[in-house]
C-alpha cells in the first residue's frame, strides 16, 4: 500500500511529497515516486556522488547513488526534519 508522505528539512523547509510503501525508515528517494517537488531540488539531473543542499540552511539533504541498479537520492538522516504522512 502506498502512502503519501511529506519530507521537510530540519530548518522547516517543505521539500517534497513522496509515495512511500511500508513502515520502515525513509532511506532513499526514487525520482519516479515523487508526487510534488516543492523545492525543485530533486528534479535536477545530477551525476553519481553529487549532493543536494537545502537552499535555506545549506545542510546536505541527499547524495545521488546507484542502489540495486537504480539511480536514487540517498537521504542524509541527520538533515531530515519532520515527516508527515497521510493515507
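^ Assign residues to that structure.
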Amino acid at each position: 500500500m502506498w502512502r503519501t508522505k511529506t519530507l521537510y528539512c530540519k530548518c522547516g523547509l517543505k521539500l517534497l511529497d513522496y509515495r512511500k510503501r511500508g513502515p520502515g525508515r525513509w532511506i532513499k528517494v526514487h525520482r519516479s515516486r515523487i508526487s510534488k517537488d516543492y523545492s525543485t531540488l530533486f528534479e535536477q539531473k545530477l551525476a553519481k556522488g553529487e549532493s543536494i543542499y537545502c537552499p535555506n540552511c545549506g545542510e546536505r539533504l541527499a547524495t545521488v547513488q546507484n542502489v540495486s541498479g537504480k539511480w536514487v537520492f540517498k537521504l542524509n538522516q541527520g538533515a531530515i526534519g519532520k515527516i508527515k504522512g497521510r493515507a
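The beta strands are 2-9, 14-21, 28-29, 34-37, 51-53, 60-67, 70-75, 80-86.
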